[in-house]
Amino acid sequence: MKNLKSFDEHPINFCAVSKKIKVLLLVFMVTLPLTSCFEDMDDNAVPNADINDFVWKAMNAFYLYNENVPNLSNDRFGINGIDNRYDKTEEYSAYLDEFETPEDLFETLIFDSLDSFSNIVPNYFDVLNAQQGTTLSNGLEFRLYFVPGSETELFGAITLVLNNSVADNLGLVRGQLFRAVDGVNLTVDNRIALLTQNTYTLNFADYNDNGTTEVEDDIITLNDESISLTKESYTENPIHIAEVFNLSNVNVGYLMYNGFTSSFDAELNAVFGQFQSAGVQDLVLDLRYNGGGSIQTAVHLASMITGQFNGQVFSKLFYNSNQQDRNRDYEFTNTLSNDAAINSLNLSRVYILTSSISASASELLINSLRPYNIEVIHIGDTTAGKTQSNRLIFDSPSFISTEGINSGHNYAIFPLIANSTNVNEVLVPSDGLVPDVDIEESPINLGVLGTSSDPLLAVALVDITVGDRPFGRSLEMGNLRELKTPQLHSPFDNLMFEE
Questions:
Q1: Which structural domain range is residue 118 located in?
Q2: What number is the average pLDDT over the span 35-46?
Q3: What is the pLDDT of residues 78-95, one digit of tens each?
Q4: Is the pLDDT of residue 4 over 70?
């Protein structure tokens, strides 16, 4: 028996950790503004020096690593960004004048060795939209790989197609390969220019293994198929697939969940209500394309999986020395933010599937469940390794709300502001969470999501039904080498935030 077909069947999230994401973010937001959820205000000219003043004081007040950046010290210019919100000294003003743009200043205030995630945004409405699941997208998710035998040539593999998106409506599917864009072969050097366009044409290809098991002699050849895609404003329901499998008299729930988006918490809770009604005894939670999102939504999801830990600490946030009064605990709960009762499964184990871009709130969920009496079986690839939370900081008296905001510009910053730990104050390692069963997706063996042809899901289902778990072993899926850089999708991936 298979039921509970998906609410919204395709996701968004594919950026690996790299400082280059800041550049992509700026390009994205300068050229592709969104106004579907939050309307822009009139943009009256404000001198860069005034915006720079906001950037410095906000970073001084909230940036997690402010003590590691000498120019953010509270006594650096005789100004403390919290206590002296509007003060300036002659030395401070001269310092701000050194920077032509707010972006230039912001880049000098980042503690590079620990931070690949803080951003400055010229239009904060785009971030507000993204937090509610709305971005500019053609609905295509892919990963890039080196052509066998080449250090520069690339090909792409479509991993997901967002439901009811441009790509979905054009009939694109998981597993399709492309070798060129606009008739130009993909390379390491041209991939950003080709794949960040609003409109581009994918030129598809066929994979030939030459009848051998060796990758070195494999050939990727362009075929005659191509398709043009144009990005549109798109709101994604993060519930990509929700199904129940009846296997050997065990009811197994499967949920592919692609973003911790609070505006869809009610729909998420409804899925768990259906899982309850179906008598689900085991759950496979697929977070392999989930780059993070709302911490409170992570709490809600953890409470839906469990239910037996209500009121106990799920996670903790620790701020910098200027914001110690903001340190807080998040507790397991039996209600959503609107006081609706949470549908809890009261499970004693959960299977979680990940990839190298599973980050932030996805990692928080795994890390924060593990101290409790619930077995977390982690299958897939090592996660991204992001334990810090971000927050959108405005040019307003409080920094954290839009009340009294400077109406002359739309700049905001989205810095790392706190470390997130589990109840035992253990951080997610910077090199990621290592799975119990190490298995990476292969572009030539992706399978169909939500079926046993998907290699990652198959491992979980076999363990549930016959107890055959390849613990501590790496399941080789092929030797094709992935390009481990930003995958040119949403610039808001890998962010975890308070609301």
A1: 20-131
A2: 45
A3: 888 878 878 889 999 999
A4: no
